[in-house]
Amino acid sequence: MPELPEVEALKDFLADHLVGREVVRVLPVAISVLKTYDPPVTAFEGRKVTAVRRHGKFLDIEADGLHFVTHLARAGWLHWKDTLPDGPPRPGKGPLALRVALETGEGFDLTEAGTQKRLAVYVVRDPAEIPGVARLGPDPLAADFDEARFARLLAGERRQLKGALRDQSLIAGVGNAYSDEILHAARMSPFKLAASLTPEETTRLYEALRSTLTEAVERSHGLAAGRLKAEKKSGLRVHGRTGEPCPVCGDVIREVSFSDSSLQYCPTCQTGGRPLADRRLSRLLK
């Protein structure tokens, strides 16, 4: 799933390639991708792109006061095309969900792999009309997101750190992969209760949050859209690396599996050397 660093890089890439150019066609291939109908998606046609923004994991393309907003979900992606194929795309069983064409002949495709269709496209007058955007918490890389604000968010949170970091209404943009990376950098168990953090632990987690995301954004900066997935994977130290040695201490990276996801961690760095039980209702290890 694309998270804050990848969506931030896509935003910068699209700003360079879209701003000032006219959208001539928006061609849905999978109708299920459209989550709004008024204004219709065709209302975006004939407008010049004026800005590209990010709201958490949402990508927002503005054209003359109208917003084309997409959430790539777990298996969606954006593919830039210097030259789009001739003729309209044909509906079928392939991953193509929607195509946006520019007056220059360039454009991009939105695709989604797999059978769980969660890729979403909205055309709205104000991004706040989208429930997922309206409920977003603060952006962790915003200038005003200081440690005091972070501490206030965690105060009273009776959830485990892994779940708290992934909650978009608490902090916008962090998903499954970077929550693993942040907790590894902070040397904390994913099952530790957020409200139990000491002031020193809060400082450590805040610094890990900011540094992990900042470094990931810097690695992705300037990359073409097609290279972002590979860059994300290469930069991860624990997530998706079950069975590999921890790059910090050399211990074997372990995994806890859930019904629709999994987390990875290092026992030596994060749980005092104790492996977490690989079942959904694991006891908390602090």
**Helix percentage range:** 25-40%
User: What portion of the residues fall into strands of 2 or more residues?
Assistant: 15-25%
Rg of Cα set: 20 Å
The structural class is alpha+beta
Which shape, going by the Cα principal axes?
elongated
Alpha-carbon distance between the two ends: 28 Å
Can you describe this structure?
With 286 residues, the protein is of the alpha+beta class. The protein contains eight helices and ten strands. It has helices at residues 4-18, 131-134, 147-154, 161-166, 176-186, 199-220, 228-235, 267-270, and strands at residues 23-28, 49-55, 58-63, 66-71, 76-81, 96-102, 107-112, 120-124, 254-257, 262-265. The strands form three sheets. Strands 1-6-7-5 form a four-stranded antiparallel β-sheet, with no helix packed on it. The chain has a four-stranded antiparallel β-sheet with strand order 2-3-4-8, with helices on one face. Strands 9-10 form a two-stranded antiparallel sheet. The longest helix is centred in the last third of the chain and has 22 residues, at 199-220. 38% of the residues are buried.
Present the secondary structure layout.
Blueprint: H1 4-18, E1 23-28, E2 49-55, E3 58-63, E4 66-71, E5 76-81, E6 96-102, E7 107-112, E8 120-124, H2 131-134, H3 147-154, H4 161-166, H5 176-186, H6 199-220, H7 228-235, E9 254-257, E10 262-265, H8 267-270
Antiparallel strand pairs: 1-6, 2-3, 3-4, 4-8, 5-7, 6-7, 9-10
Helix pairs in contact: 1-6, 5-6
